[in-house]
Amino acid sequence: MSAEAISQKLDTQLAALAAGEPRLKLAAQALTQLFKLRADEVAIFSLDQKREMVGFLWPPKLKATGNLPLSSNTALVARTIRDGKAFVNNSFGSLSHATIFETVKIDKDQPEAPQRIQKIMSIPLLRDGEKVGAIQLSRKGTDGPSAGPDFGKNELALLADLAKVIARYV
Fold first, then answer.
1. pTM score of the predicted model
2. Residue 51 burial (10 A CB sphere; 0-12, 13-18, 19+)
3. DSSP string, 67-101
4. Rounded to an integer, what distance in angstroms lies between the CA atom of residue 75 and that of residue 36?
5. pLDDT means per 10 residues in the chain (170 residues)?
6. How many Å apart are CA 49 and CA 37, to the nearest integer?
7. Is 125:90 a contact under the CB 8 Å cutoff?
8. Domain 37-152 CATH superfamily
9. Do 81 and 54 form a contact (C-beta atoms < 8 A)?
10. Residue ranges covered by each domain of the chain
């Protein structure tokens, strides 16, 4: 199935659901399946423009963990939104970054030992040209090879198409 067909299908499915968590859950499930990720490897963020803060929309368990300032120099999600650019880093685990959110157990299928983000794609969510949040897809493991395959240009292009759709519904 082409990226366009996948995006159209997701758009139709999201439009049929009530706003809020049902749409976020479907978007996260679609990203999990398409990119062959675990539930704890998909994050959707919102931007509070007035407060200049970034917070989790998905997974729901992380919504109450607090917000990050948009001015943060150590949070990739803040940089993604601020710069309005997508990032891919397949050696993210070797970089210094905040790891507090990586230790929160999201579901029962998640490994007991905390897994660190080794590889990541981060893309802004834009609605009518306005920054509204970001999506981050990661691959976690004890090291790069254990986390799975690298993210590539094709995956980033697909995520960019899907982010356009998801931005209309968050």
1. 0.88
2. exposed
3. EEETT-SS-HHHHHHHHT--EEETTGGGS----GG
4. 24
5. 91 95 96 94 95 94 88 92 96 64 53 78 96 96 91 96 96
6. 30
7. no
8. GAF domain (3.30.450.40)
9. yes
10. 37-152
